[in-house]
Amino acid sequence: DATAGSSSDCQxxxxxxxxxxxxxxxTKEVVCTNCPTGTTGKRCELCDDGFxxxxxxxxxxxxxxxxxSCNNNIDPNAVGNCNRETGECLKCIYNxxxxxxxxxxxxxxxxxxxADVADKCKPCSCSPDGTVNRQTTCFQSTGQCQCLPHVTxxxxxxxxxxxxxxxxxxxxxRCNCDSIGSTN
Amino acid sequence: xxxxxxxxxxLPPGSHILFTQSGxxxxxxxxxxxxxxxxxxxxxHLPEKVLIGIAYDCLEKMVYWTDISTPAISxxxxxxxxxxxxITTDLGSPEGIAVDHLGRNMFWTDSMKDRIEVSSLDGxxxxxxIDTGLVNPRAILTDPTSGYIYWADWNRDSPRIEMxxxxxxxxxxxxKDDLGLPNGLTYDPQTxxxxxxxxxxxxxxxxxxxxxDRRQLMEGxxxxxxxxxxxxNLYYTxxxxxxxxxxxxxxxxxxxxxxxxxxxxxxxxxxxxxxADHYALGGxxxxxxxxxxxxDEFQPQKQTRLYGITTAHAQCPSGQNYCSVx
Lengths: 184, 326
Fold this sequence. Notes:
heterodimer, A: mainly beta, Laminin, two-stranded antiparallel ribbon, 14 strands, rod-shaped, B: mainly beta, Neuraminidase, four-stranded antiparallel beta sheet, 27 strands
């Protein structure tokens, strides 16, 4: 308030160098109005959308704003790709998940960090009849589904040699062929 | 080439362009169809929010916006006054918003919940209108006199522009071929022209939705996000910057950035996160719809991304509610 006539009428903006500030008339709160490039917030303490960090070091050491880091598993045309403080990725694509889109989402397996999209996350596609509890998830790295007894293949789609009847949903049964009449 | 139309009249005095930018709603008055750039100012400052979509209710002179940080849908009077939260629950990433000033409803897209919703302008009577076949719905608009909504979905695998009745029925696809990232969408009821700005093809195209007479208005755009029209001009927000270049690493096209052409090698199928020190800049670009060329541009003081944009008419356009007529 420059009209009060005292030496403390005008105070320095509590904002980083170069930013201007204003007083909210109703609450008398001081708000920075022109934060340095890439930053925003009442005190320029936040990063712009698409970036994350802690530009004023409010929660620890100063971390300048960096672009969302999501293993190339976000779309640059999307908005709100990561949390502006923690950098947690919020819009993973290519069937990835995790804080940094660094793993495959449920029901998918492969290497979320692979350079080529085709090598990223593929569907588990577990065969329901051969899989324990008809699960749809598999091991992240190998893609191996959890097979019922005497069931084989990555997707639990076949019986082991000498076994049959995968459709039972309880695993495969021994063939019980008579050794005299069978070819092997 | 379209000829200038004598029936395009200047907007009533007091109309302006509103757009969102990093926690702010910015305001640029219109003088006829010219931006009064020297009178641009911040209409609303919400430093902790990330405002994306914006719409204006010409009847009550309220501005409506989506906020992906809370997330929330809110409104405030343009002439001062506190923001009022309208929708705060069960939102993922609310992006586009449109007001039906005759029916007193608002419509919005949610690109995380993959749906289009509607509610009264006070947030009551909320209802999901469409929840199938949506991947990245963004822009949405209403044509209250005909009872339609239009929206664009920038789904990378199958981008499209669609329409439906305001109750979600009679849905149909208007455009699905030769689209890239149709981010911006606008409609001029006077001439029945639906226009879209595509950040993938870098084109503005228009059509009369009833005739299907699609045609290109302009090409060589940088990176359009939102779009609006005042009847004569189109105004779009532009993510000019390296962000635009990075999104096109996939196709390896040459892009114009700040007046100079830069070409990039194809990195097919691989997106690259933009480097930390390259922040997006932003601007509002004005296209004369009849001449089909860029006629003006406005760059706000703060250099960061601009998102939604809308025309705030000083008076509501004439026309009756479709439902009250039929």
